Amino acid sequence: MDKIEAARYLGMKPDDLNERTEALIEKCALKLEGVIAPKHIYAVFDIKTKNQKVIFPDFEIDSNALSKHLEKCDEAILFAATLGADVDRLMMSASYTDISEAAVMQACAAVMIEEYCDSVMETLVDGENNKFLKPRFSPGYGDFSTSYQRKILDILKAPVKIGLCVTDGDMLVPSKSVTAVIGITDEKSGCNINKCASCGNLFCVFRKE
Does residue 198 belong to any structural domain of this protein? Predict the structure, then answer.
């Protein structure tokens, strides 16, 4: 796990990372590695973009941001991933005993789910057939409403297949989980798996240069 990335999730710059924090990150990462059970599921669909909407075979996503992101794509992947329920239980336990450890554990788990998603996306790239992936675009980015998470999970049958559900308030359970739409394009230029490439918030503390 990238310790610098974990520090960034804590709102720290690389130069701010001291020995005490680094040791706590390593401790939390080790605990998480003992309980994580990462799983993912995905499916590929033909899509069209029209009138600020992304049109799938059986449903539409009303999002100008997502439509622009996928405007040169004829296919897209619906994707979901989770670190598993034991991570939530471990973080809950830490919140009762050590607030600092709980905060660092949250940051480490956030890095782990992103790194897991990145590693899965690497396996989906098929450059030999001139197919490349756009950065994953998750509900909550721009005007892509989190209310679409339930539809994505239902289509993928994620509750049954990987144990990933959503609350009435559109929160994912387990919490260290991701849903996303990933465009498939034949244009290699500009493609970048990292999600920061698709985010317009230039002042985000989490943004990579």
Answer: no
